[in-house]
Design brief:
It is a single chain. The protein is of the alpha/beta class. It folds into four domains: about 5-115, Cobalt-precorrin-4 Transmethylase, domain 1; about 120-240, Tetrapyrrole methylase, C-terminal domain (Methyltransferase, Cobalt-precorrin-4 Transmethylase, Domain 2, 2-Layer Sandwich); about 320-390, Alpha-Beta Plaits; about 390-520, Sulfite Reductase Hemoprotein, domain 1 (2-Layer Sandwich), CATH 3.30.413.10. Helix content is about 30%, strand content about 25%. It has helices at about 20-30, 35-40, 60-70, 90-100, 120-125, 145-160, 175-185, 280-300, 340-350, 370-380, 410-420, 480-495, 505-510; strands at about 5-10, 30-35, 50-55, 75-80, 110-115, 125-130, 135-140, 160-165, 195-200, 205-210, 225-230, 235, 240, 250, 320-330, 355, 360-370, 385, 390-395, 425-430, 445-450, 455-460, 470-480, 515, 515-520. The protein has a five-stranded parallel β-sheet, sandwiched between helices. Strand 24 (about 515) and strand 25 (about 515-520) form a beta hairpin. The radius of gyration is 33 Å and the shape is elongated. Bound molecules: iron/sulfur cluster. Iron/sulfur cluster (SF4) binds next to loops. Iron/sulfur cluster binds near residues 398, 400, 404, 432 and 434.
Length: about 525
């Protein structure tokens, strides 16, 4: 009969954290082979299986014995704590098989059964520290030269990986954890959060939250996993948390803002994200009910506790932010002066980026703790600074280098009133200083075209894609004193009734009528005057 090797990872050690398949595999085995401590941990799940147990450093002999017994036709379980494929027995068993010329087609059957590795079980006890790129490094130099391990720690530090150190220290091996700390301190601050978890989900479990600088003041042994945060990891209310987005984004500190990091978890912004069943509205309802209950108890004299104000410290506030802003020389102006270029370069510094875009502005992206100061310096240089994201942006032609300047006041007022307004999806208003409508204004979401002293309004353009199309002409001859309010009514309706992420042209089509202007599937051609630009 063909034998079978069942290489089982049984997780941290508690029965609740062993997978169903691992339990079945133990039951169907004839022989259980494992390290003494591991056999003791799962003994309660065994019935009459033969047990082969050995000491700690005898992994190779266990693997050889397992293969030998399987070749006799038995079902043999080789057990590892955590995951058998992560510093476990799976690799060793395969190495023994390879040496024997084993082939899957006609050799003993092999099944590797996954378990929960220490990085996962320890992370769950600490909070959510492994929310970003992470690596595991074993500090045991029993089988790996220390120089190689040190190089890997160096690389992890350089790459800002969250690091889980396995086998950090033993009775004889005490130097490695000290060197590991020194290497990582070159790349991240001493107050970087560190979790020390010993015997996760076992009887003598211990969880300590400390810092990279102070971690050696605590007990660290062979059963400890050391979880070191990256430069974004923070501690909040005793929990070690690494933000999933690596850095928060900051645009402009206006009353209306595109999404900020602490708003990301709202359902409308990330409909796919988990919210623990608590939306903002539900939270408000829950708080209101709790307040009612407190008031009721107080009325009856049953409340003798004081109300503790919630901790409002936002850990994001201490972190540098990536400032992303649209910068241009003005709504209608397309020329940058040398002074403005210098201000831009100074704002970007050595590490920032200035990206040329097709939207009549450059995108400045810079990491900073002083976003307000950068914005103020750019504005002092006469630059127009606008937020980016799901906001209104105003694009205008250059009014023939200012020669056709009649409608510039209205363009400026529209920018003043609406640029930066949060809307369901980024929206551009194209403004043209005459009927030539340069700079592609009629392809924008909303187009305003100055003609013969009044304004024409176009709605629902689609700038890009194979199905790009011009906006529909919905009104001609709007007087100057009605223009801004007219545009305002369109934006207000979109803001109120648009679905999150719904582009304006789709919204216009879905809703059929915006601010009294009707959507038309078949748009009649616009009659163009023969006089250029009039
Ligand atoms: S021709 Fe008209 S649309 Fe073009 S830049 Fe001059 S004013 Fe603007």
């Amino acid at each position: 009969m063909r034998g079978k090797l069942l290489i089982i990872g049984f997780g941290p050690g508690s029965f609740q954290h062993i997978t169903e398949r691992a339990r079945e595999a133990l039951q169907e085995s004839d022989v259980i082979i494992g390290y003494n401590t591991y056999v003791d941990l799962i003994r309660g799940l065994l019935t009459d299986q033969e047990i082969v147990r050995t000491g700690m450093t005898e992994e190779v002999s266990r693997a050889i014995e397992a293969v030998r017994q399987a070749e006799l036709g038995k079902k043999v379980a080789v057990i590892s704590s955590g995951d058998a494929g992560v510093y476990g027995m799976a690799g060793l068993v395969y190495e023994v098989l390879v040496q024997k010329g084993w082939r899957e087609a006609d050799g003993v059957e092999v099944e590797v059964i996954p378990g929960i590795s220490a990085i996962n079980s320890c992370a769950s006890l600490l909070g959510a520290p492994v929310m970003h790129d992470a690596c595991t490094i074993s500090l045991s130099d029993h089988l790996t030269p220390w120089e190689l391990i040190a190089r890997r720690i160096e690389a992890a530090g350089m790459g800002d990986f969250i690091v889980a150190l396995y086998n950090p220290r033993s009775g004889k091996r005490t130097r490695q954890i000290v060197e590991a700390q020194q290497i990582l301190l070159k790349y991240r601050p001493a107050d970087t959060p560190v979790g020390l978890v010993k015997s996760a989900y076992r009887d003598r479990q211990s969880v300590v939250l400390t810092t990279l600088g102070e971690m050696l003041d605590h007990d660290i042994g062979m059963l400890t996993t050391v979880l070191i945060g990256n430069t974004s990891t923070f501690v909040y209310d005793g929990k070690m948390i690494t933000p999933r987005g690596y850095q928060r984004k900051y645009t402009l500190d206006k009353a209306e803002q595109p999404i900020r990091a602490n708003e990301r978890l709202k359902e409308e912004h990330e409909p796919w994200a988990l919210h623990g069943g608590v939306s903002e509205r539900k939270k408000e309802t829950t708080q209101a009910l709790a307040q009612q209950a407190v008031a009721m108890l107080a009325e009856r004299g049953l409340l003798q506790t004081k109300i503790i104000e919630p901790n409002t410290n936002n850990p994001y506030d201490a972190m540098p932010a990536i400032l992303e802003i649209a910068v241009s020389p003005g709504v209608g102006n397309k020329k940058l002066s040398a002074r403005q270029m210098t201000a831009l370069m100074t704002a970007a510094g050595a590490e920032g980026e200035i990206e040329y875009t097709p939207h009549h502005y450059v995108l400045l992206r810079v990491m900073t703790k002083e976003p307000e100061q950068i914005v103020s310096q750019l504005e002092q240089a006469g630059l127009l600074v606008q937020p980016i994201g799901d906001v209104v942006q105003v694009k205008a032609c250059d009014f023939c280098n200012g020669e056709k300047s009649q409608s510039i006041p209205e363009a400026d007022e529209i920018a003043e009133r609406f640029a930066g307004l949060t809307v369901p999806k980024e929206l551009k208003i194209g403004f043209a200083g005459c009927a030539m409508a340069c700079y592609g204004s009629v392809h924008e979401d909303i187009a305003v075209i100055y003609r013969r002293g009044k304004f024409d309004l176009f709605l629902g353009g689609k700038t890009i894609g194979r199905n790009a199309h011009a906006a529909q002409p919905v009104a001609e001859g709007i007087p100057a004193d009605e223009l801004v309010d007219t545009v305002g009514r369109v934006l207000a309706e979109y803001k109120e009734k648009g679905h999150p992420d719904e582009r304006f042209h789709k919204f216009f089509k879905r809703i059929g009528s915006v601010a009294g202007y009707h959507h038309n599937e078949h748009v009649p051609a616009v009659t163009v005057d023969t006089v250029c630009g009039d």
